[in-house]
Amino acid sequence: MTELGWVETLGTTVPETPQLRILHVDGDTFFASCEIAMDASLSGRPVWVGGGRKGDGIVIAANRLAKR
Hints:
single chain, alpha+beta, two-stranded antiparallel ribbon, 2 helices, elongated
């Protein structure tokens, strides 16, 4: 180990503790859940979140009730 906390392994220098962190967030229902949290009247109802132009919208998130 060096002063910087790096380890040399088979001629390759790698950090002793990885500096890269990966977080996977399943946004499938996240945005719908946010809308329900901000408007309690949506609770227990199918909720879709989306957008679009000129009526050609796209659904980017839906809660479980909306997926049935």
